[in-house]
Amino acid sequence: MKLAHWGLMLLLLVPLGTSWARPQETSLGDAARAAREQKKAPPKAAKVWDNDTISQTTGHISVVGQTPPAATEAKPAAAAEKAAAPAEGKTAEMTAAEKAALEAELAAAKDKLATVKTDLDILQRKYALDRQAFYGKADSASDKAGAAALQDERSQIDSKQQEVAAAQQKVDELQEKLKAAGAGGEKSP
Questions:
Q1: Rounded to an integer, what distance in angstroms lies between the CA atom of residue 21 and that of residue 171?
Q2: Residue 47 has what pLDDT?
Q3: Choice between 166 and 74, residue whose per-residue pLDDT is larger
Q4: Residue 8 pLDDT exceeds 80
Q5: CA nearest 148: which of 123, 130, 171, 169?
Q6: Residues 53, 186: Cα–Cα separation, whole Å
Q7: Cα 26 from chain centre
Q8: DSSP secondary structure, 34-90, as one string
Q9: Which of 19, 137, 180, 185 is the S-S candidate for 95 at Cβ 3.0 to 4.6 Å?
C-alpha cells in the first residue's frame, strides 16, 4: 500500500518537474505580436517649414483659409515706398488697421452665423421629432397642449430663420466692405 502511495505521488510530481525543468515556449499569438512590433517603423518626424526650407524662387504656396491682410509685395519695395511718401504711409497704416478691424468683425459675424445655423438645425430636428410623436398618437386631435407646443416650436423656427438671414446679410455686407477696402487700399504697380 505504501508503495502504491509513493508511486502515485511520483506520477503526480513527474509532470510538474518536467515543466519546471524546460523553459516556457511562447505562444503563437505572442510570437505574432513580437513580429508586428519589429515590423513597425518609427513614426516620421513632422516637417517644419520656415524661411530656410521654403525656397524664395518656387512661386506661390497654397494656403487654406484667408490670406493675411499684409501686402504681398517684397519687403524692400514696400520700405522704399514708405520712405518716398511718409504722409501716404500713415493713411496706408490706417487702412491696414481698418482692414484688420473689418476682418475681426467679419470673423465674429461668421461665428455668430454658424452658431445661429446650428441652433436652427437643432430646433428643426426637435420640431420634426415632436411632430412625429404628436401625430403618431391616436388622440392627437384632442391634444390641445401638444398642438400649442408644436405651434410654439414652429414660431421659434421662423424667428430663428429670420435671425439666420440677418446674420448672413451681415456677413455678406462685411465681405463686400472688405473686398472694397482691399481693392481701394492697394496701390497698382
A1: 80
A2: 76
A3: 166
A4: no
A5: 130
A6: 30
A7: 45
A8: HHHHHHPPPPPPPP---TTTS-TTS-----SSPPPSS--S-HHHHHHHHHH-HHHHH
A9: 185
CA-CA distance, 36 to 121, in Å (whole number)?
46
The whole-angstrom separation of Cα 133 and Cα 110 is: 35
According to the model, what pLDDT value does residue 166 have? 93
CA 81/CA 89 separation, integer angstroms: 8
167 contacts 113 by C-beta, under 8 angstroms: yes
**If you search the block for the grid coordinates 430663420, which residue do you land on?**
161
How far apart CA 121 and CA 118 sit, in angstroms, is 5
98-154 pLDDT tens trace: 888 888 888 999 999 999 999 999 999 999 999 998 888 888 888 898 899 999 999
Q: Which of the given ranges, 2-6, 51-55, 137-141, 147-151, has the highest pLDDT on average?
A: 147-151
Q: Tell me 188's DSSP state.
A: P
Q: How many angstroms separate the most distant Cα atoms in the chain?
A: 120
Provide the pLDDT confidence category of residue 15 given band limits of 50, 70 and 90: low
108 is written with which cell numbers? Answer: 465674429
In whole angstroms, what is the distance from residue 126 CA to residue 133 CA? 11
Q: Where are the domains of the chain?
A: 77-189
- How far is 88 from 129, CA to CA, in rounded Å? 61
Q: Output phi, psi for 37, to 5 deg.
A: -65, -35
